[in-house]
Inverse folding.
């Protein structure tokens, strides 16, 4: 490939590069934060064991004796009553305790210090912003890696 | 009341700290049910995990989400194991229970806790209380001349700042930062998986990597500059040898110039301090909140200046994430810079940040007023949850 071909290829690449709008960038950032709350990123390794008859279920020990107390009927009822997701609890709490202090009022305000920026690839302090997605990068090398990997690869 | 009839249970989102009030140390175990790829016969409850020889790809079922008890089924599994013959063999119906719950706990969860322990377990009497209140109580006993205390509880799910004035919690100034150990571990997993090796399924191993290699920087920009140097002149570069669970049971740091023999390694550099830095700058990953040091000053500034003076010299750090090396030094340096010059700044790191609240609970049971803080099963049967709501300060 000669230099003008390369130039035009790069141009074409740049033109076809999608640009994420502000809303999409925010959605993406929120998803990334939510992912940091996850307990597992893979599936339950025992999920498909239920069907297997050879392997004892965990209420039983290997010699077949019951080792765990079965949960009482009362507990089943109790569980039904208190089974709530975090979002449900929060909503309920806003009704029970609308006035501060409550969960919402307890969160600290935003920092007064300016935001710092780190290269999405290598983690060092950086000055540039990817035009397509808003991620930060420090050098041409890291920008290249970013574009080849994360830039617009995951859609929010 | 004899201490052997009181059980203290600090129910953390990551670890449970539990024991009789006359025990000298609590038993510490994961508050989780875990499943391993290598052991398909059974899950592991709490510290049964010690019996698991290969914890790669360990799958967690946690009762606590974002710091609050959500999954009662799993919590019961862990508590049944804890109270049962394999652990403490607690005779709960003749026992008083001191149980921690999170700051500003949701009312529904509080009600569930009381109902569970009184109706399902039939405990003799119950006190539910915040971990910070237990630590502040102990701090007050150890430092009887001090009038105030600001507890900073930096745990797994989040970080709280809880001011106490003359032993009383000032609930309206309790504040929360949405960062704790879990975020740090998950963020570390994220960047290692992107930069080097996919470890997204290895929470257990990467949590150890964090504990073994990460530290808090006391000069962030300076350390960043050092970390940019070539490996030869860069003291922060280390190779972490990952466990293979046959010859290597636990990962360890290997100096960068020492040759390996084909073990799988993760090279750590700026990650070692850039990850804990999130506690001090949550905005580094887009959480628009103050970091710990700034929040300490912010909370103290809510008080009249004569109280501020007492709070600045009685900051107490508890919770597992405070164990990161240099955590205290960093807080000290930051707060000293931001606090009024005439205020003495004294940051105290609990001698064991993980178990401090549990120990505080044991000290509290010796208080002459202790039994008046409890709600007995008889009282509960008569007055119901509303009495608990009145008597327990959460
Ligand atoms: Zn870079
Ligand atoms: Zn991009």
């Amino acid at each position: 490939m000669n230099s003008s071909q390369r130039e035009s290829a790069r141009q074409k690449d740049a033109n076809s590069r999608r640009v994420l709008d502000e809303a999409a960038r925010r959605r993406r950032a929120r998803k990334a934060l939510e992912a940091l709350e996850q307990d597992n990123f893979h599936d339950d390794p025992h999920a498909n064991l239920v069907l297997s008859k050879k392997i004892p279920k965990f209420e039983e020990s290997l010699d077949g004796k019951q080792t765990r107390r079965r949960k009482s009927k009362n507990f089943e009822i109790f569980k039904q009553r208190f089974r709530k997701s975090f979002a449900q609890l929060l909503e309920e709490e806003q009704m029970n305790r609308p006035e501060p202090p409550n969960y919402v009022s307890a969160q600290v305000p935003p920092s007064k210090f300016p935001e710092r920026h780190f290269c999405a690839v290598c983690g060092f302090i950086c000055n540039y912003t990817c035009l397509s997605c808003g991620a930060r990068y420090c050098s041409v090398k890291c920008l290249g890696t970013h574009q080849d990997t994360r830039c617009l690869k995951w859609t929010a | 009341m004899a201490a052997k009839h009181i059980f203290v249970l600090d129910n953390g989102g990551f670890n449970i700290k539990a024991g009789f009030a006359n025990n000298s140390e609590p038993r510490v175990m994961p508050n989780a049910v875990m499943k391993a790829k290598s052991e398909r016969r059974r899950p592991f409850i709490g510290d049964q995990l010690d019996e698991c020889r290969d914890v790669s790809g360990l799958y967690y079922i946690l009762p606590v989400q974002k710091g609050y008890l959500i999954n009662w089924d799993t919590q019961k599994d862990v508590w049944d194991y804890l109270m049962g013959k394999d652990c403490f063999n607690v005779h709960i119906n003749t026992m008083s229970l001191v149980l921690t719950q999170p700051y500003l706990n949701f009312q529904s969860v509080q009600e569930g806790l009381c109902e569970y322990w009184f109706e399902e377990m039939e405990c003799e009497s119950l006190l539910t209380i915040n971990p910070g209140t237990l630590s502040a109580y102990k701090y007050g006993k150890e430092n009887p001349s001090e009038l105030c205390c600001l507890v900073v509880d930096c745990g797994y799910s989040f970080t709280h700042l809880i001011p106490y004035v003359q032993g009383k919690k000032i609930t309206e100034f309790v504040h929360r930062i949405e960062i704790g150990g879990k975020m740090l571990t998950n963020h570390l997993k994220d960047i290692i998986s992107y930069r080097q090796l996919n470890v997204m399924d290895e929470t257990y191993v990467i949590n150890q990597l964090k504990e073994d290699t990460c530290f808090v920087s006391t000069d962030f920009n300076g350390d960043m500059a050092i970390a940019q140097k070539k490996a030869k002149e860069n003291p922060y570069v280390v190779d972490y040898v990952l466990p293979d669970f046959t010859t290597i049971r636990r990962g360890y740091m290997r100096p960068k110039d020492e040759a390996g023999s084909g073990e799988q390694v993760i090279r750590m550099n700026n990650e070692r301090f850039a990850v804990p830095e999130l506690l001090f700058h949550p905005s580094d990953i887009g959480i628009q909140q103050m970091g710990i040091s700034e929040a300490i000053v912010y909370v103290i500034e809510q008080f009249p200046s004569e109280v501020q003076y007492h709070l600045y010299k009685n900051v107490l750090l508890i919770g597992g994430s405070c164990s990161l090396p240099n955590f205290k030094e960093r807080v000290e340096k930051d707060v000293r810079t931001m606090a009024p010059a005439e205020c003495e700044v004294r940051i105290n790191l609990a001698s064991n940040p993980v178990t401090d609240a549990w120990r505080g609970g044991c000290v509290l049971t010796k208080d002459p007023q202790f039994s008046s803080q409890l709600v007995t099963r008889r009282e509960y049967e008569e007055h119901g949850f509303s009495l608990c709501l009145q008597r327990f300060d959460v």
